[in-house]
Amino acid sequence: MNFTQLLQVIALTALVTLGLALLVVRLRAVLRGWLHRRLSPRYLKPLGVRHRAARQEPRND
């Protein structure tokens, strides 16, 4: 394999990788849209650390 063929293989690999990455991004967006249409809003809340609201003591003035 000479240098020109090696460059062609590298370029082809880069194009295929880019194409697959764009396909995955598109499929993810389609899946997310489908889930938003199918699921009720309570299942679409973001996950993470939940904090309780601080209780405020009544003021006795």
Structure description:
The protein is mainly alpha-helical and 61 residues long. It has one helix at residues 3-38. InterPro entries: Cellulose_BcsF/YhjT. It comes from Pseudomonas capeferrum. Keywords: Membrane, Transmembrane, Transmembrane helix.
Number of strands: 0
State the helix count.
1
Q: How would you describe the shape?
A: elongated
Helix content: 55-70%
Note the run of SSEs as H and E: H
User: Using only CA atoms, what is the Rg?
Assistant: 26 Å
SSE layout:
Elements: H1 3-38
Provide a concise account of the structure shown.
Keywords: Membrane, Transmembrane, Transmembrane helix. The protein contains 1 helix and no strands. By secondary structure, it is mostly helical.
Task: Provide tags for this entry.
61 residues; 0% strand; mainly alpha; 1 helix; elongated; 59% helix; single chain
